[in-house]
Structures are given as structure tokens and as C-alpha cells.
Design goal:
Blueprint (H helix, E strand, L loop, with lengths): L1 H8 L1 H20 L1 H17 L5 E5 L1 H4 L8 E6 L12 H14 L4 E7 L6 E6 L4 E6 L4 H15 L1 H16 L9 H14 L6 H8 L6 E2 L2 E2 L21 H11 L2 H7 L2 E4 L4 E4 L3 H12 L3 H8 L2 H7 L7 E2 L15 H17 L1
Parallel strand pairs: 2-5, 8-10
Antiparallel strand pairs: 1-2, 3-4, 4-5, 6-7, 8-9
GO molecular function: nucleotidyltransferase activity
Organism: Macrosiphum euphorbiae
InterPro entries: MTPAP-like_central, NT_sf
């Protein structure tokens, strides 16, 4: 408990740490030299395969919470693949990785193909920019997911503060790894923010986009990741909860006393509600159909019943619905040891506050 007491008990000291961290992060993300290095990195990757596609940055470098030593997540669209043409073709993705590795010059150090991951990636260090990188070829869905997170973090300054604070907490306790990504952690936080009306659930964004034409990525309608300008007047929260209160509520939400209950439900990002796992497939369809204007997603969702029941069928772990690819669980890593550790750390942290 000493580590928890040291990290969280002195609230003013902890807040000062986070404010300093945010200042440092903002300096890095707004630094023209860093931006120039990122552009150089993208150009170097694109140059490996002449006249072939475009590189996109996603992850923490896109939504503005990267530190100086943060990795760079990249997606290489080798030509008309952003929408997901090869998203289900694992073999083709590996072929493209092999082609890249063979074409890579001496700028790319320590090239390592990772096939144990859900999406195959190639990991390397880019010598001239000194960035550690993960490069994938699946689809642009990760880019759009990052766009969506960027939008949510911009809705209320408290949200970004809490996300950065929780990430700092997770790093302090060595929680983050390949199986527990910053992306997963952010959505765990955003779901709690939905409970306290700090940010809206996904369905509210859909209502604002219902007049726009569908934009499909991996077969899912991702139109909510576009036309952000129309959301600006409608996104402020009336809640007066402080940043520290919200941080404590995140820890309390996933603490032992509440997590036992949560394991019986799916944390539904679309509705901002918990839905029973036993009837998640049918309950989600009926609830969303009653609201209307979500037909494109429901049609795709209905075709994934077996996958949905598999991804959300465990009653001994917390499961949170992907906000765009609705059949997926954002946090499949939260099982057994990983889940118990996460819950234990949340419980102790909540008690320390």
C-alpha cells in the first residue's frame, strides 16, 4: 500500500505531477521539430515501396498524449486498402510486411515481425528520427478509432486530464504492455466518463451524423469519425465534478466491489449502459432499433452473432464493446491474472484517495 499512498495520498502533489506531465506532453506534441521528424518517418516508410500507398499515424501520437519516448503506431495503406479490403486476409498482411522488410533500407533497425498479436505488425527503430515504431497493414480502422478518441479528449479538459493521469498511474504500476494497450485503458476511462455525463455515448454522436452518407471501414459504418465541426457547440458537459473526483470514480468503478457485478454485463459504449451478457446480442439490437438511425451498424451487427457471443461470453472478466467494430471486445486481455491485477490496483488506488 505504500506505493499507492505515495502516489495518490498527497492530492496537491499528484495534481502538480499531472499538470507538469501535461505541459511536457503539449510541448512535445506541438513541437515543429517533432512534427517534422514524424513526417520524415512517414516519408521513409512510403519510399520503401515506390508509388505504393500512404502511411498514417494513429494512437497516442495522433490524439495528443504521447511523451517523448512514446512509440509511433503506423498504418501503411498500400493502395485502396484503408476501407478494409485485406482486413480479414492475415496472409496478405504478412506478405506486405515481408515485402516491406525486404525493401527496408539501413534506416530501419532491428526489424522484427510480430505474429503473436491479433494484427500482424513489424516493429523497428527508425534510425534518423530515433522513433520506435509498430507498423501494420490491416486497415484504416485504427486511424479512425484514434480520430474518435481525439474527439472525446477534446470535449472536456477534465477528460484528457483523467486519461493522462490514469495512464501515468498504469505506467507507475507497470500495467501497460502489448496485451494491455493505452487504447484499451482510454476506453475504460471514457466509459466511466459516460456514466457521469462528462462525454456522450456513441449513439449521441450518431444522431448528429444521421444526415451524412455512410462511410464503411471493415464493413462498419464509421461516419461518426468525420465532420467533427458540427459537434463543437453540443459537446460541453454541465457536470461540476472535479478532475480528482472523476479520477477516483474511475478507480472505484473498476474496484473489486463493483467489478464482480460488471463481469455479468457488457460495457456498451454505444449506449453508455451495461447490458446483460446472457442476452447482449438481442438486447443491444432491440434497444438500438428502438432509437432508429443506426440501421447500417445493426445490419452488420446482426451478421456477427456467433463472434459476438464468443467475444462477450465470459462471465469471469470485464468486457467492453468496441465503439466502431461493434462485435469486438476492446479489452480481451482482461482475464485471469491481468484482470485480477487491474482490479486489485484500482481497489487499492480508490482506497488511497
Amino acid at each position: 500500500m505504500n506505493h499507492f499512498h505515495e502516489l495518490l495520498s498527497d492530492k496537491s502533489k499528484f495534481c502538480h505531477q499531472i499538470e507538469c506531465l501535461i505541459t511536457s506532453i503539449d510541448q512535445i506534441n506541438n513541437d515543429p521539430i517533432v512534427k517534422e521528424r514524424l513526417e520524415k518517418l512517414k516519408h521513409s516508410i512510403e519510399s520503401c515501396v515506390e508509388n505504393c500507398g500512404r502511411v498514417y499515424i494513429f494512437g497516442s501520437r495522433m490524439y495528443g498524449i504521447a511523451k517523448d519516448d512514446s512509440d509511433v503506431d503506423l498504418y501503411f495503406d498500400t493502395g485502396d486498402c484503408f476501407s478494409g479490403k485485406i482486413s480479414d486476409d492475415y496472409t496478405r498482411q504478412l506478405q506486405l510486411i515481408d515485402l516491406f522488410v525486404k525493401a527496408a533500407n539501413k534506416e530501419f533497425i532491428g526489424l522484427e515481425i510480430m505474429t503473436e498479436t491479433r494484427i500482424p505488425i513489424v516493429r523497428f527503430t527508425h534510425d534518423s528520427t530515433n522513433f520506435n515504431c509498430d507498423l501494420q497493414f490491416r486497415s484504416g480502422l485504427a486511424v479512425l478509432n484514434s480520430d474518435l478518441i481525439k474527439l472525446y479528449l477534446s470535449m472536456d479538459e477534465r477528460v484528457r486530464w483523467v486519461v493522462i493521469a490514469v495512464k501515468h498511474w498504469a505506467v507507475s504500476f507497470q500495467l501497460l504492455c502489448d496485451d494491455f494497450s493505452t487504447y484499451s485503458l482510454i476506453w475504460l476511462v471514457l466509459y466511466v466518463m459516460m456514466q457521469y455525463k462528462i462525454v456522450p455515448p456513441i449513439i449521441d454522436l450518431w444522431r448528429m451524423h444521421q444526415k451524412h452518407a455512410p462511410i464503411y471501414t471493415e464493413g462498419w459504418d464509421t461516419r461518426i469519425c468525420f465532420n467533427y465541426d458540427q459537434l463543437k457547440p453540443k459537446k460541453s458537459s454541465k457536470s461540476s465534478l472535479s478532475k480528482l473526483e472523476l479520477l477516483r470514480y474511475v478507480f472505484e468503478f473498476y474496484s473489486e466491489s463493483n467489478s464482480i457485478r460488471l463481469q455479468k454485463y457488457v460495457l456498451c459504449t454505444v449506449l453508455g449502459e451495461i447490458l446483460p451478457k446472457k442476452t447482449f446480442y438481442s438486447t443491444f439490437i432491440s434497444k438500438v432499433n428502438a432509437m432508429g438511425n443506426y440501421q447500417c451498424q445493426i445490419e452488420k451487427f446482426e451478421k456477427c452473432e456467433t463472434l459476438i457471443n464468443t467475444n462477450f461470453g465470459s462471465f469471469n472478466r470485464i468486457e467492453l464493446q468496441n465503439p466502431l467494430k461493434l462485435c469486438n471486445n476492446v479489452i480481451p486481455w482482461l482475464s485471469d491474472t491481468n484482470m485480477n491485477l487491474f482490479i486489485d490496483l484500482c481497489t487499492k488506488s480508490a482506497n488511497s484517495m
